[in-house]
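Lab manual, section 2.4: Encoding a predicted structure.

Procedure: take the sequence of the chain (248 residues), apply the prediction step described in section 2.3, and record the output as structure tokens. A sample record is shown.
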Amino acid sequence: LPDTTRLFTQQEQDISDALQTEEIMPWARILDDEDFNEQFVFQMFGASLDTWQKKSYNELVEGFGKVTSELQSSLSLPFPAAHLRRISRLIVARAEHFPEANYYSGNKWVRKLKRAVGQNPKQEVAMVPVLDLINHSNRPNVSVRVGPSKTGKGGEITVYSMTKITGGQELCRHYNFALARPAALFRYGFLPFDMISMIEHNAVQEHLVNQRDLNPEADEIIAKRKKEDNEIARLETLFKKAKSGRTQ
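Recorded output:
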């Protein structure tokens, strides 16, 4: 897509107009300087993170920057690593997780039996045109259903209304903030207001993180605590899915 802020001749303007009137679905958007700027995001939402969560968020940012820099160097891309990071962040924020493409092509009773015994479908990451344009709201008026097609074989993605929608009203959905808070902030670049006003402060976990080098613990104690943390995280995920009405 042309940069409409840098059109200096009539010929450039004509070319730009022609490109933008074609039937295209651009995977792009105009960005403000602050968009997905980690420093700006941290200044806006860092106060809602405790010490351990801030450390986790910074580790995500550092790791992401390192990987994209190495990728840009290894592929000899004709643009700076900062551009690759911006492009990648746009994709990360809009990527959706769905069952593999042929999952809904088989027998529905076999699918239900597999889910009943804990054999959940493999997940694939995909970009979905139009769906990625729907913004987040704490009071959404639409939701997304992924399931077997009602018009034929295979699966389908359906956006359906949850309330009365008037003409000209923006369609908004609720993003998946069941993720850990640092991961949600890294992925979306913001946190909803209800999460900002309620800090998930785990004083015990924060103390252990700060003191682990000073007071080393036995391996079996560390392993036990990790197992307990994993079980708590699993139960919290199940609770949030049940509360939101989502199914596996």
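Check your result against the sample. The first strand starts at residue 96 and ends at 99.
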